[in-house]
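User: I'm writing a short methods note and want a consistent example. For Beta-galactosidase, I'll paste the sequence; you return only the structure tokens, no commentary, since I'll be parsing the reply automatically.
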Amino acid sequence: MTSAIPTTRRALLTTAAAASLLPKDSVARTRSGRERLSLNDNWRFRLGDPEGLDGALDYDIRPEIKKSEDGKEADARPVDATQVSATRPVLKPWILPTANPFISDPDKRHTRPEGHPGAQVSWVKSTFDDSGWEAVTLPHDWAIKGPFLETGPYGGMGRLKTWGAAWYRRRLEVPASDKGRCLFLDIEGAMSYATVWCNERLVGGWPYGYNSFRLDLTPHLNYGGANHIVIRLDNPPESARWYPGAGLYRNVWLVKTDRVHVAHWGTQITTPHVSQNEATVDIVTRIDNDGAEAADITLVTRLYALDAKGKPSGRAVSETARQSVPLAAKSSRVIKASATVSQPRLWGPPPAQVPNRYVAVTSLMQGTREIDRYETPFGIRSLRFDADKGLFINDRFVPLQGVNNHHDLGALGAAFNVRAAERQLEMLMEMGCNALRMSHNPPAPELLELCDRMGILVMDEVFDCWEKRKTPLDFHLIFPDWHEADLRAMLRRDRNHPSIVIWSVGNEVGEQYSGEAGAQIARRLVKILREEDTTRPVTNAMNWAQADMPLPAEMDVISLNYQGAGIRSLPSKFPAFRAKFPNKIILHSESSAALSSRGEYQFPVPGTNSGPVRPGVGGDPKTHQVSAYELFAADFGSSADRNWAAQDQNPYVAGEFVWTGWDYLGEPTPYYEARSSYFGIIDLAGFKKDRFWLYQSRWRPDLPVAHLLPHWNWGNGTQNGREGEVTPVHLFTNGDEAELFINGKSQGRIKKRPFEYRLRWDYVTYEPGEIRAVVYKDGKPWAEARRQTTGAAHALALEADRSVIEADGKDLSFVTLRIVDDKGETVPFAKDKVTFTLEGPGEIVATDNGDPTDFTAFPSPARKAFNGLALAIVRAKPGQKGRLILRAQASGLTGAQLTLATH
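Assistant:
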């Protein structure tokens, strides 16, 4: 199978006007050319509705929630939808037409009623004085600042209130010279049920909070004067199983084009033939003529190589033949073209391959004037899926070493930030991760651009549910009306990203349980997908469907959640699916679901390699912490050790996506009293759990890895004194043999046995001092690891991930605080309260510590350390150069300070 080459309509640009990647090839851009301007600044924000609205601006009637379902098990069976009929006017008929460009059957497109509901609402009116509203900059997640809820339980959604109406208003000046052009509002994500007015006219909206969408402002604008954009969001309660975020949490753009222009997400690039010597690049371009007159245009697309920073290098490497195209007024045409690239630089995942990229620059000419220039970054690569061996990229085998991640960025919430996402990916790659499953919704487009640039493979996923519901007010309410538009919108936006190798149309959907009826929905979704893209396989993550059921047969890839190795699925289901589908690739779309709290070691330690969390065995119901020995999992999951044994015993399995790479807000299994999950290999603040080195030892076999646990501070003077007691020591290593020493005395040299992935000395007696492991591989020294008993907490220490940041109001420095003894060693049980202050033109955006039970609001500058560590996130104020001095103080400890530079 060959790949469709990734297309993005923008590089990672955060400037006010998105600059073109390339020079203009000697063709001058006129005022009618394409512009893409950020609308992230100068918004006014208000929570709630004006008095007396009484549901007049509701999208639809929602089912009544008679009893909260929050806190039910994460893999609970979905149920049938509650049927509700509208008994009063709603906005749905005015919003549905926004979906029309994505509905293939003209007879099923929606007719908009007359009028502009909401025009008489004071907050919609252009004359309304919003100066008393909060000034905000997008992306904006209004819910993340808290405070955390004390009652609820609302644990599933992170104990943060994300529901209710929220309003955004912005003034927009449009010059008179824009008259005769097309102006579009592009919203990359709005949570959720967005309704948009322009100058008191209802333009449209989009219910699904994770998809990007476009609205045409052209007929509603005042040219040469002021305009007002008003957006109302109405996020429901109990709409998700995790923290959904709130607000306009992704970028918003104003796009200006000529009346004749490349359509929204209007290019599709594929590479049907790829070799080291030559690649064929096929380009399909959709052109819209929104004008009242016919037009004759000439189209040509040039291909340029991009360097590692996404900048063009040199002249065009190829171009298509020029084509003359007549367009009738108010019409669209699809134009096909091809180009050949000699000695192509292929896109592939590190470390064995390089994520080389190109950009296709499509020019529309009217006579000698360029009327549109549309840029599509892409990559040249081939995909092949082998049922016996797995995934091949450019004919080179690539094991899927992936993780699942939800979309929140910890203390920053759902508001997308490029640097925060990049930091997450950098740490995952350090661990050896090469793949990311988008759980369970379309991501921010900039996240896909990061994956393209860094060479991370992606399973792009659109829905968490279909017609059956998981929570009372989730996507099932709008699936019947919107599934086609939402699926096509995601595919058209994302289809040109080289990082995407698999499409997923669902996750653990309730239709697994409904036999042929569920399979019919799957067939409908697969048909839509293949109409948009035939170059990648389609899948649907299944946690219950069995091999002999109709739903799996509709998928190109068999994706199993916990069925390969899970406590509820003994024995492994891999062999049954292999026997039923010998020609299909099989992978673990969710594996493990292991649980732990960083640095929280609990005793006794069982001799098994995997088990559920129970009081006194892996979990403490009083502290709501889970043992960090990395042996415990959710009831439906397993430890990494047991999961790897199942994969290694079934070598045709193409790999895994671990649940999860990072902890995330909400879904705090097994303790719904907490704020955030325990699943992550990395905690919510970005601190590595011990499991990080367990995965690194498997995923980076050529890197000497040796990591000892637990810490070695168990003296009788501590809260958990254990002198003279059995304190098991485990070693995570990719060596095959090791000897453990305590204060120089050998505790024995042991070897890994088949299907073992850690070395463990289960009968060690604790004594203060040093533990040291000497690791061997193939009989030769390979690595060493040490742990020492520290002194008492003495001082604070600060370390930034980057000491120089951009003064653009977006770039971030993540500063780690450590509580150390008099020798500078981190005190592993320290929980002192720390206060951060910042001097200079910047701000402390948020703090955290990775403790899932900490309900201190994220903006607070004061926070307790959790097992020796805390985090401060710092950004500079836009346009203000100067030094930032971060200081940290704690009672009884020597303080610390750190200087950051901005430019």
